[in-house]
Amino acid sequence: MIYERGQTIVRRHLHPDGRVGSVLCGRVVSDDEHGLALWIETGSQTMRRLDSAGRPTRELSLLTSLRMTTMLSLGTWQPFRTLMLMPPGAAHSIWWGWRPDGGFEGWYVNLERPITRWAGGVDVHDQELDLLVYPDGRWSWKDEDAFAECTGDPAFWDEVEAAGVRVEGERLLALARAGAAPFDGRWVDFEPDPAWRPTPMPHWWDLPADATCWGPEYFQPGECA
């Protein structure tokens, strides 16, 4: 399945039990042999989980939040204008981020299982460990404690998969330290189509990925044109 430039799609992060953990939506920049590039403008709508008191669960460990009563709620994407690249079959995505003043903030490497495509977008199983790379060459790991906590839990991954996740992260770190693609300046000057406003959450955000009863017109609502 190939998406068209300017098409609205969702990127759903799924919990191990199959529930939707969070949803992002944006505009397709390109979809080719280099991967799927998605633009998420500041202010685009998101879906994130809250606890029963209405508090965001992002500050809790994933294992803790999975054992709580939570619900999805609309929010907005802040603070960075973001370009996400999901290379074909890759166990990662790379995010370019720009501050509101237009300055390039750096790269965010999200380690994840290869995406699954469906008519309305892509589904992702996050692997917790992330890598931050800054324009001046600095870098740091993110969420190492969460990655360690999930490793060995039957709902997540075993030590073998965890080792593979770390190897993938180290491989990308080596590319970043060498200034090699995709950390070689490509996309840093990217400007989206000026007509692309912040993206509203499309009505199909929670459609089952295996649904086959909807035609292409179902995924082209006027409010997202």
From TrEMBL:
<dbReference type="InterPro" id="IPR007295">
    <property type="entry name" value="DUF402"/>
</dbReference>
<dbReference type="GO" id="GO:0016787">
    <property type="term" value="F:hydrolase activity"/>
</dbReference>
<dbReference type="InterPro" id="IPR050212">
    <property type="entry name" value="Ntdp-like"/>
</dbReference>
<dbReference type="Pfam" id="PF04167">
    <property type="entry name" value="DUF402"/>
</dbReference>
<dbReference type="InterPro" id="IPR035930">
    <property type="entry name" value="FomD-like_sf"/>
</dbReference>
<keyword id="KW-0378">Hydrolase</keyword>
<protein>
    <recommendedName>
        <fullName>DUF402 domain-containing protein</fullName>
    </recommendedName>
</protein>
<feature type="domain" description="DUF402">
    <location>
        <begin position="77"/>
        <end position="179"/>
    </location>
</feature>
